[in-house]
Amino acid sequence: PRSDAADAGKGQRVMIIGGDGYCGWATALHLSQRGYEVSIVDNLCRRQFDDQLGFNSLTPIKSIHERVRKWEEVSGRKIELFIGDVCDYEFLGATFEKFNPTAAVHFGEQRSAPYSMMDRSRAIFTQTNNVMGTINVLYAIKEFAPDCHLVKLGTMGEYGTPNIDIEEGYLTITHNGRTDTLPYPKQGGSFYHLSKCHDSANMLFCTKAWNLRCTDINQGVVYGIATDETMMHPDLINRLDYDAVFGTALNRFCIQAAVGHPMTVYGKGGQTRGFLNIRDTVQCIQIAVDNPAEPGKMPIYNQFTQQFSVNELAGLITEAGQKLGLSPEVISVPNPRTEAEEHYYNAKNSNLKDLGLEPTLLGDELLDTLMKTVIDYKDRVDQRLIMPGVNWKESQSVAKNITK
Ligand code: NAD
Ligand code: USQ
Q: Sorted alphabetically, which SUPFAM superfamilies does this protein's record hold (predicted)?
């Protein structure tokens, strides 16, 4: 069947770990709509972080229970829900036994770099949650579903910003006359990004030691809100973060422009990253699920479609905003992070395109739709949450609170 056919996923049982989050929710619905049997595993810690720090999603999101009920009503398809922590092996093992997945897509980690740099305990939480969770998933696959294909979300930030081209996971090096293909050097720029480097090393080891099927996906920064399924009913709407801890560059700039807050370019703004639309996230994950890794080999995909510097993004959103009658402004904020602000960046991204990805590139029309959706919810924005409050150099052992 074609990849968007109603029975494209026939026979596949996909466990979406982190399925209540931004990427996971959109992916769960995308696959469910195409006939994959989907379950969601999530401990809802992302919602708790918002409660603890006084943040909120731009869009009013429903509880996961209401979301899944509404999805069944709208689509006639069931999503099985398992509420629990992947760091709890008893829970995870029982979930694997019950659902018996053919593929597990692992989004379920603490994913904010600023959160991981708030203080010592959040640094430790991030690495414990992420690294331990992934080790548990690897054990659960080995023990309960050895043929299950793990599709694990990593990040482009694992590579840092080296002064050479970024390959897709592996680099062939000739050293003192001998040649080998080795994991590409990793230089994460926060305790969060480093947790993904550690995950990648652990996965490669387990793939080889236990002959598992694992795919490591180094995703760039995701932007956008709409996917066909999440827009089918207001109760299915996805989350969109705009605060300085969980909000990411392009999404934040759109929201800032919509509420008349200057766009917050950190430092010189030459920081360049790979970006992709959330519509492409769901497409890429379907492609990865449909192409299981060979046992014992770990393919790595760089999952992004376009590169932009932060200054380029601010420029694009200024133009899009002006077309809608807004007057977007840009300010340079002292960079709270430790990162290169001017650097070489050229990352490969052909593996997913070779497997059939048709990118949704950032154009006028797309920015226009995104801006309009954001404007619809702009009254929900608390502008006090926009300026950054977490500084890499000031991270310390005393617990930090963000107060508005
Ligand atoms: P998110 O925070 O919106 O979603 C993550 C979900 O995982 C949340 O619902 C959370 O409750 C859940 N979770 C976290 N720890 C868990 C645990 N121990 N047990 C069970 N559930 C747990 O994040 P997102 O933006 O959807 O990102 C999903 C994945 O993709 C992450 O691994 C992230 O690192 C990666 N990624 C995201 C982006 C991006 O721009 N959003 C870019 C590249 C990579
Ligand atoms: N930036 C600004 N202004 C802002 C916000 C960010 O200039 O208001 C800059 C940052 O300094 C950084 C770049 O934009 O140089 C990207 O920052 P970000 O917050 O958009 O993204 P990042 O912290 O890297 O993290 C996000 C997700 C993470 C994912 C990562 C992909 O939160 O889960 O792994 O994007 S990547 O960047 O490719 O590693």
A: NAD(P)-binding Rossmann-fold domains (SSF51735)
Question: Which protein residues are within 6 Å of ligand 1, measured from CB?
Answer: 18, 20-24, 42-46, 85-87, 107-111, 129, 133, 153, 155, 219, 221-222, 248
Is residue 403 very low, low, confident or very high in pLDDT (cuts 50, 70, 90)?
low
**Which protein residue has the closest C-alpha to ligand 1 atom 22?**
108
Residue of minimum CA distance from atom 21 in ligand 1: 42
Over residues 289-308, the pLDDT tens digits come to 999 999 999 999 999 999 99
Let me know if residue 62 belongs to a domain.
yes
Pairing state of beta strands 330-333 and 13-17? unpaired
Tens digits of per-residue pLDDT, 213-242? 999 999 999 999 999 999 999 999 999 999
Q: Whose CA is nearest to atom 1 of ligand 2?
A: 249
- Among 44, 111, 194, 230, which is best to mutate for testing ligand 1, by the most ligand atoms less than 8 A from CB? 111
Nearest-CA residue for ligand 1 atom 9 is 21
Which residues neighbour 16 within 8 Å (Cβ) at sequence distance 6 or greater?
Answer: 24, 27, 28, 31, 38, 39, 40, 41, 105, 107
Query: 189: domain CATH number?
Result: 3.40.50.720
Ligand closest to 387 (CA) is 2
Q: Does the beta carbon of 310 lie inside 6 Å of ligand 2?
A: yes
With 0-12 / 13-18 / 19 or more C-beta atoms within 10 angstroms meaning exposed / middle / buried, residue 115 is: buried
- Residues carrying an active site annotation: 155, 192, 196
Atom of ligand 2 at shortest range from CA of 247? 19
Residue 171's domain comprises: 13-388
Question: CA-to-CA distance for 75 and 29, rounded, in angstroms?
Answer: 9
Domain count, the chain: 1
Question: Are 3 and 25 in contact, with CB atoms under 8 Å apart?
Answer: no
Domain annotation covers residue 103: yes
CA atoms within 13 Å, Cβ hemisphere of 227: 27
- Asked if residue 404 has pLDDT above 70, the reply is no
Q: What is the pTM of this model?
A: 0.98
Specify if 5 maps to a domain: no
Atom of ligand 2 nearest to the CA of 114: 23
Residue 387 near residue 244 (C-beta atoms within 8 A): yes
